[in-house]
Amino acid sequence: MKSECTLIVIKPDGIQRHLIGKIISRFEDKGFRVINLRFFIFSREQASEFYSVHKAKPFFEELVSFITSGPVIACLIEGNNAITAVRLMAGATKSFEAAPGTIRGDFGLGLTENLIHASDSPESFIKESGVIFNRT
Ligand code: CMP
């Protein structure tokens, strides 16, 4: 058993489409624990820092505009191999290619609008959760 912590963010499309309960339930049903939760709107500065690894990418501006367009929910999730397992449950970045049974595969069709973010490594988790939970 490797108990670890990861971060998910339910993006503005997930909130607008009333999928909060369904998304969080999947992780709870799997056996993960929600150990912290925050409902908030990203500032542009905070979003740029959160997505700083994508700064040079052509979609960066669209990404920051989208993630700041409405409220999001950030959750800290704890359990066995949480980083890998939670990303598998989120599904492929391109929702239209995501496998059925995953969150993106079952609920979405978008790319920028892909319902959920999940940290991809322990380093990303520390950085991303710091941007959201250690600053206001
Ligand atoms: P996320 O897992 O939050 O990480 C970066 C986000 O950039 C990704 O989900 C998508 O929402 C968004 N994005 C937009 N365009 C692209 C693209 N061409 N390739 C990858 N990610 C993209």
Brief rundown of the structure:
The protein has 136 residues and is an alpha+beta fold.
Question: What does the secondary structure layout of this molecule look like, with pairings?
Answer:
Layout: E1 3-10, H1 12-16, H2 20-30, E2 33-40, H3 44-50, H4 60-67, E3 72-80, H5 82-90, H6 103-107, E4 116-118, H7 122-133
Antiparallel strand pairs: 1-3, 1-4, 2-3
Overview of the structural elements:
The protein is of the alpha+beta class and about 140 residues long. It has a single domain (about 5-135), classed as Nucleoside diphosphate kinase-like domain (Alpha-Beta Plaits). The protein has 7 helices and 4 strands, in the order βααβααβααβα. The longest helix is centred in the last third of the chain and has 12 residues, at about 120-135. The structure holds adenosine-3',5'-cyclic-monophosphate. Adenosine-3',5'-cyclic-monophosphate binds near residues 59, 63 and 111.
